[in-house]
């Protein structure tokens, strides 16, 4: 093992190369497969989004020949292009999993490039899952060294740190030795980019596609013998000092307890059960619990009070949303929708769902405010309480101190994962016969001898063309009737 004064990239690389399948705990394996399945689902749902469709129409994108599938289509291309497009689609709806320690989304930088590379090289599912876990480890370890200065300065950690995770994961899948893996990480340091100034635009999901492509490119270049300065992270003009500033990072935190336990098993990693801002999720969960346990009916409600940690409000206190995007960032709408419809689904954040008369009536009865018992400087930043006053004067409430999405001690059940996956796959117009088998195969991904046996279920047959000179139209969004999903099939 390299000494403590060896380049950071080389020390990281030695750890990346040291792990094999036997080092994966059952917990890490299960969480990895669930997160990968979830990411594939949200990528399918993101395929019809404008950012993905515009990218696919851009000259020069996804035209190179190759074996890598653009998820949810019949189009195959080179791995770098597939990583770019599928990565962008996977973050198009901001419905992907996230990490409180990273300050961003940990799976989307990894899944698209790993699948593209695995298809091109014929890799097994077991190798892909291990590479994914190692990519998560490298990415979040680096995040611990730079956050939250890095986040507060305006960098988008999903992209600026995700490129290192993608490089690490792809290098491991390629079987690179420590020096070439370190080179890939050093190359990634020069490819890191992504500004929070572009949040709220198509550029935010593009950050993800771009960083995944760059991480894969770094690993492929290193495989071919490309060179980079191995000290590119700690150099005075390297990643840590340039992106954070001298003295505003702690490289020792990258290496403390690496893989023990795996970061994928950390309580700060969570899936998104609901297709809206993560800051609304604790309050949604409390309304769902209250409605279920007290059998609430909307007609019985006289007032709804939403009390949350003050950090959850600046971007979600939107009492009268009118557009789908405003609805995603309205804690009032999200809680009202949970009362009216149960678990919020994609259709509830599309079209004119936020303008329904019963929604507007309940919004007029709803307030949101900082919780008096949840101080801004307290240890838990993801608490919420929902208080409902009934017409007969009774006050009912439910409270949670900390709920960072669904993970840790409160993981999504298989049924909940399936309900979300099906909702996403239907939006992406995947053939109905493929959806349940694909879900099952993804949850058992480590058993696949060849990843291509799984990705064939992600392929949507090309429509017949009556005139070869007329290109097929872009994928249209499927019609949604807003109905609740039917009963969950047994698996």
Automatic annotation (TrEMBL):
SUPFAM superfamilies: 2-methylcitrate dehydratase PrpD. Belongs to the PrpD family. InterPro entries: MmgE/PrpD_sf (IPR036148), MmgE/PrpD_sf_1 (IPR042183), MmgE/PrpD_sf_2 (IPR042188), MmgE_PrpD (IPR005656), MmgE_PrpD_C (IPR045337), MmgE_PrpD_N (IPR045336). Residues 457-491 are annotated as: Disordered. Residues 477-491 have a biased composition (Basic and acidic residues). Residues 11-245 form the MmgE/PrpD N-terminal domain. GO terms for molecular function: lyase activity. Residues 274-427 form the MmgE/PrpD C-terminal domain. It holds the Pfam family MmgE_PrpD_C. It comes from Caldovatus sediminis. It comes from the Bacteria. This is MmgE/PrpD family protein.
């Amino acid at each position: 093992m390299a000494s403590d004064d060896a380049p950071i990239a080389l020390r990281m690389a030695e750890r990346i190369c040291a792990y094999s399948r036997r080092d994966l705990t059952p917990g890490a394996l299960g969480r990895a497969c669930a997160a990968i399945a979830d990411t594939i689902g949200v990528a399918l749902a993101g395929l019809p989004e404008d950012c993905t469709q515009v990218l696919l129409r851009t000259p020069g994108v996804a035209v190179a020949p190759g074996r890598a599938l653009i998820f949810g289509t019949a189009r195959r291309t080179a791995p770098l292009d597939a990583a770019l497009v599928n990565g962008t689609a996977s973050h198009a709806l901001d419905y992907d999993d996230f990490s409180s320690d990273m300050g961003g989304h940990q799976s989307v930088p990894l899944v698209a490039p790993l699948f593209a590379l695995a298809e091109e090289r014929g890799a097994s599912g077991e190798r892909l899952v291990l590479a994914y876990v190692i990519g998560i480890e490298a990415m979040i370890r680096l995040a611990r060294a730079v956050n939250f200065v890095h986040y507060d300065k305006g960098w988008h950690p999903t992209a600026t740190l995700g490129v290192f995770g993608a490089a690490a994961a792809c290098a491991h899948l390629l079987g690179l030795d420590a020096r070439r893996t370190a080179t890939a990480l050093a190359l990634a340091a020069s490819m890191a980019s992504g500004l929070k100034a572009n949040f709220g635009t198509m550029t935010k999901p593009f950050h993800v596609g771009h960083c995944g492509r760059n991480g894969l490119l770094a690993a492929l270049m290193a495989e071919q013998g490309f060179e980079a300065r191995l000290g590119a992270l700690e150099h005075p003009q390297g990643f840590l000092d340039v992106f954070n500033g001298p003295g505003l990072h702690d490289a020792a935190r990258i290496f403390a307890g690496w893989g023990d336990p795996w970061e994928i098993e950390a309580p700060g990693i969570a899936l998104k059960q609901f297709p809206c801002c993560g800051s609304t999720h604790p309050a949604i969960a409390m309304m769902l619990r209250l409605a279920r346990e007290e059998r609430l009916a909307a007609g019985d409600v006289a007032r709804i009070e939403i009390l949350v940690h003050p950090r959850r409000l600046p971007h979600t206190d939107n009492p009268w949303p009118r557009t789908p995007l405003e609805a995603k960032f309205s804690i009032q709408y999200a809680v009202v929708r949970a009362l009216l419809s149960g678990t919020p689904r994609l259709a509830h954040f599309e079209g004119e769902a936020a303008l329904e008369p019963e929604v507007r009536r309940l919004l007029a009865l709803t307030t949101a405010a900082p919780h008096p018992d949840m101080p801004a400087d307290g240890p838990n930043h993801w608490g919420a309480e929902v208080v409902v006053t009934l017409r007969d004067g009774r006050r009912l409430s439910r409270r949670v101190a900390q709920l960072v999405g669904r993970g840790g001690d409160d993981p999504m059940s298989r049924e909940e994962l399936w309900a979300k996956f099906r909702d996403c796959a239907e939006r992406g117009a995947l053939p109905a016969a493929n959806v349940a088998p694909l879900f099952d195969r993804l949850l058992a991904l480590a058993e696949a001898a060849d990843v291509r046996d799984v990705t064939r279920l992600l392929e949507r047959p090309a429509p017949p063309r009556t005139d070869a000179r007329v290109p097929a139209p872009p994928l249209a969004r499927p019609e949604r009737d807003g109905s609740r999903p039917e009963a969950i099939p047994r698996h």
